[in-house]
Amino acid sequence: GATSKFAWPESGKEPRIVFHNSDNPDSFVVREEGGDFGGIFAGPNAGMHGEFKHAVILDPDKVMTHYDFKHEVDYDTYLEAMRKELPSISDEEAEFLWDYIAEDKHSISLDEDMDEAGFSYSRLFRGYPLRDSPEYVIQRLRGKVAQAAGYAAAEMKDETGVSVLVGPGPKTYPLQDGEGFNEAEARIYQEW
């Protein structure tokens, strides 16, 4: 209700609760300058390293899924986001990267794939954050496209299964001492 300390989804839908580990013991608002990815990673069993567990409450309508990227994100919005991140990008390079950002192609060999296709990974990503890891570059770009399309977060396939890159805006809520993810989720849902 109105008295809750939690920010619930504007859509009125059941919240999607994910978890994040942080070195910060206190509640914080996710900010873009929080790291190279432009947000924080969270998931059913937390993301990132850190001694303090936090819950993040997301509106399910504001989490960009694989389907959303392919069917709901306007190509012009995608292109605009890419140009903002990579001012030197050509239309052909943006088109080439689409399948990687859609997660239809695995980005582990993106640098080689680009070079084989006649593009230059090293030129396009010169000076770009995380450029030494094509997978991280693609995750950052996926998050930026999600933000440009009005999403608060983007699902990512990664080594943990599916995690969520949460962009600027949402607030984190520290778990109570010794509280596990399931207990925290149950406690938060009780207030919803």
Word description of this protein:
The chain has helices spanning 66-71, 75-85, 91-101, 110-116, 121-124, 134-148, 181-191, and strands at residues 16-22, 40-42, 52-58, 63-64, 153-158, 161-166, 172-174. The protein has 192 residues and is α+β, with helices and mostly antiparallel strands. Strands 2-6-5-4 form a four-stranded mixed beta sheet. A hairpin with a 2-residue loop joins strand 5 (153-158) and strand 6. The radius of gyration is 17 Å and the shape is elongated. The N and C termini lie close together (7 Å). The relative contact order is 0.25.
Count of beta strands: 7
Helical percentage = 25-40%
Q: Give start-end ranges of low-pLDDT stretches.
A: none
Structural class: alpha+beta
Please state how the strands of the largest beta sheet are arranged side by side: 2-6-5-4
Short description:
Helix content is 34%, strand content 18%. The protein has seven helices and seven strands, in the order ββββααααααβββα.
Q: How are the SSEs placed, and which strands pair?
A:
Blueprint lengths: L15 E7 L17 E3 L9 E7 L4 E2 L1 H6 L3 H11 L5 H11 L8 H7 L4 H4 L9 H15 L4 E6 L2 E6 L5 E3 L6 H11 L1
Parallel strand pairs: 4-5
Antiparallel strand pairs: 1-3, 2-6, 3-7, 5-6
